């Protein structure tokens, strides 16, 4: 009797709970329809490729499909498959986890439908070397996770959509088409590869070198040669001009100090698209909302009008003189980087100091990690991109400000804010108390703690010492995998690359400052991890 139960029970459970398929039937149907339309109804080709509704795309022989160890289709690579049909974006985008779609070097015709905007997680889209026609859909600019886009060697016409809405775009190839109009704004701060040669563009060529801000693109040249007429923009004053070095465009306003009614002070307003003609009285009169208090001061949200919202940091006992405070922020105003939140204005006296910058409504990295994500996807790829962006930014700032002795001095997740494109920006740069070589190494330590937060999902206490101590103790016991955020484990993030990033973090939090790597070294290490991650996603199945 007992032996019968032992054998029957597992069989009964198996019958009630049959093995689940990776993608549901509706997704499989849609993917098969996608392939049928690409194949122009050539049924024999479809059968040879193994795309069949009765089989599992993650556990069978669907050629060109890879689930990357998960239960959902992540990558579809159909390069040189002799496809002669049309592109059914509505069908393929039912695979909600799709990261990579590559259809290069086929004979696909027709247009790219607007439904491509439904592939919300798509990071790589390659359709170069086909016979696509018509306009490039505006919905492509809704693909906020897109990193690589290749539409080259087709017959696209019309104008390019607003590509500046895609944050963190690394590659854009659109050469050899019939695209017209002006080249739209691009965010060149991440861009590594860019080519729009042999089209019908008109208007100015974007000043790529200026926008990259000291960082070279991976290609030797940026191809913007056109079949149409293109004019160069008038040149801006060079960075070597005396005006650039001395900040000649700054405007000072004489005001009455808020704390000593008869003492003359000044609000120094820096050139900024955020505000013009800002006066101290404007800040005093503006409705203000307390954002938070800390050991180094209080932060407020000030609304000048419906279109202008500023963040004001009020500091006392900062430990630096008014002259030193002014000198630092003037220097930060000269050394610009798109991922460092620039000061809009500042006020300083011996008693208190104010720092004004544009309010970032998407909050901080701390809030994203430990508060409400409001539906924002914060997966392994997003965290790795943030880590790489902050490392690159910090390396640039350290290089530019090494001789000035100006480090950040207080780098932490609450000081990493997200702009309207959800790109990370470092705020409150140069407000640390110390000015010494050790402060640059303190930045490295702070960055290491930020990496630990990204990897573990845990919050920081005691300036990160508690978190660092816990991570080190777990790693010593050879339970390394236990430190990682369960959300990352659940999504199937690559443990090998998470361990590599953890090793970078451990180097950064080395108790001996002299043993910590430089920010250049950190950036190189993390870019290597990113490249490994991209290769794993884009590699042929």
UniProtKB/TrEMBL annotation:
Q: Which SUPFAM superfamilies match?
A: L domain-like, Protein kinase-like (PK-like)
| Ranges of biased composition (kind: Basic and acidic residues) | 223-236
Pfam families hit by this protein: LRR_1, LRR_8, Pkinase
Keyword Transmembrane helix in the entry? The reply is yes
Which Gene3D superfamilies would you find in this protein's record? Phosphorylase Kinase, domain 1, Ribonuclease Inhibitor, Transferase(Phosphotransferase) domain 1
Instruction: Give residue ranges for domain Protein kinase.
Output: 285-526
Alphabetized InterPro entries for the sequence:
At_inactive_RLKs, Kinase-like_dom_sf, Leu-rich_rpt, LRR_dom_sf, Prot_kinase_dom
Q: Does the keyword Membrane apply?
A: yes
Could you say which residues form the signal peptide? 1-22
Q: Where is this region: Disordered?
A: 223-254
Q: Where in the cell is it found?
A: Membrane; Secreted, Cell wall
Keywords from the named record:
Cell wall, Leucine-rich repeat, Membrane, Repeat, Secreted, Signal, Transmembrane, Transmembrane helix
Q: Name one GO molecular function term.
A: ATP binding
Q: Which GO terms describe its cellular component?
A: membrane
**Family, similarity comment:** Belongs to the polygalacturonase-inhibiting protein family.
Name used for this protein in its record: Protein kinase domain-containing protein
Q: Which organism is it from?
A: Salix purpurea (Purple osier willow)
């Amino acid at each position: 009797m007992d032996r019968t139960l032992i054998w029957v029970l597992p069989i009964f459970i198996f019958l009630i709970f049959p093995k689940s398929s990776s993608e549901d039937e509706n997704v499989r149907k849609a993917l098969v329809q996608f392939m049928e339309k690409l194949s122009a109804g050539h049924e024999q080709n479809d059968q040879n490729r193994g795309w069949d509704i009765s089989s599992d795309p993650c556990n069978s022989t669907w050629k060109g499909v890879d689930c990357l160890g998960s239960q959902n289709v992540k990558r579809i690579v159909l390069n040189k498959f002799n496809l002669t049909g049309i592109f059914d974006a509505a069908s393929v985008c039912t695979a909600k986890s799709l990261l990579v779609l590559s259809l290069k070097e086929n004979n696909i015709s027709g247009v790219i439908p607007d439904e491509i905007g439904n592939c919300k997680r798509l990071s790589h889209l390659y359709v170069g070397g086909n016979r696509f026609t018509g306009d490039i859909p505006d919905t492509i600019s809704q693909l906020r996770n897109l990193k690589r886009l290749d539409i080259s060697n087709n017959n696209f016409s019309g104008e390019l959509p607003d590509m500046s809405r895609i944050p963190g775009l690394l590659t854009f190839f659109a050469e050899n088409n019939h695209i017209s109009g002006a080249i739209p704004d691009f965010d060149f701060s991440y861009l590594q590869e860019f080519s729009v040669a042999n089209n019908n563009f008109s208007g100015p060529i974007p000043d790529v070198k200026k926008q990259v801000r000291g960082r070279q693109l991976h290609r030797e040249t940026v191809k913007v040669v056109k079949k149409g007429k293109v004019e160069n923009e008038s040149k801006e004053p060079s960075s070597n001009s005396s005006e650039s070095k001395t900040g000649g465009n700054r405007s000072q306003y004489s005001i009455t100090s808020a704390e000593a009614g008869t003492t003359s002070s000044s609000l120094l307003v820096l050139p900024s698209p955020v505000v013009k003609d800002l006066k101290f009285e404007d800040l005093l009169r503006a409705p203000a909302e307390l954002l938070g208090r800390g050991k180094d001061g209080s932060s407020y949200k000030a609304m000048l009008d419906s279109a202008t919202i500023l963040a004001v940091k009020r500091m006392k006992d900062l430990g630096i003189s008014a002259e030193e405070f002014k000198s630092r922020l003037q220097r930060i105003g000269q050394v610009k980087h798109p991922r460092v939140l620039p000061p809009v204005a500042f006020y300083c006296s011996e008693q208190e100091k104010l720092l004004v910058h544009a309010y970032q409504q998407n909050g901080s990295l701390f809030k994203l990690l430990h508060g409400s994500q409001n539906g924002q996807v914060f997966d392994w790829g997003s965290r790795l991109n943030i880590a790489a962006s902050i490392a690159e930014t910090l390396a640039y700032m350290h290089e530019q400000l090494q001789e000035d002795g100006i480090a950040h001095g207080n780098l932490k997740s609450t000081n990493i804010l997200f702009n309207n494109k959800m790109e990370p920006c470092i705020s409150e740069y140069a407000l640390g108390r110390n000015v010494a070589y050790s402060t640059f190494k303190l930045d490295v330590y702070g960055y290491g703690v930020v990496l630990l937060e990204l990897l573990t999902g845990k919050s920081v206490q005691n300036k990160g010492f508690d978190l660092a101590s816990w991570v080190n103790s777990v790693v010593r016991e050879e339970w390394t995998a236990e430190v990682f955020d369960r959300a990352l484990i659940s999504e199937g993030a690559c443990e090998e690359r998470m361990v590599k990033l953890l090793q970078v973090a451990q180097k950064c939090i080395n108790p001996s400052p002299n043993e910590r790597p430089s920010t250049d070294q950190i950036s190189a290490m993390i870019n290597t991890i990113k490249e490994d991650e991209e290769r794993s996603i884009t590699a042929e199945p």
